[in-house]
Amino acid sequence: MGYITQKLRGGEIQTVPELQVIARHTTADGERDAVLAILPKLIEASRNEPGNLAFDAYTNINDPRSYVLLERYASRAAFAAHRETPHFKELMLGQILPKLASRVIEQYDVVDEATPT
Description:
The protein is α+β, with helices and mostly antiparallel strands. The chain has helices at 32-47, 76-82, 86-96, and strands at residues 3-7, 13-17, 19-27, 52-59, 66-73, 100-109. It starts with a strand and ends in an 8-residue tail after the last strand.
């Protein structure tokens, strides 16, 4: 886990890291319940994408308006594909994003004991 191997057009093999995405959201005043009602639809649809390895939401115990999405993808390309899906555009960009006071997206290559040297 941590890296995937993919075959390129020329037949060569490339090893690419999985991608961990941390999306930190804070809802605008009065929008928390509306956002939390939409999230399960986004989570379910995202988990069904071929390049998605995990997609979970956690609410902040110290700030009820804040939550984090922990998303894991097979590659950066899989994350890019996620951002082009109809459910991302409709649910995240169309419905959730307008209800947020802030949004920070962090992306990390996954490193583990199987990291190639």
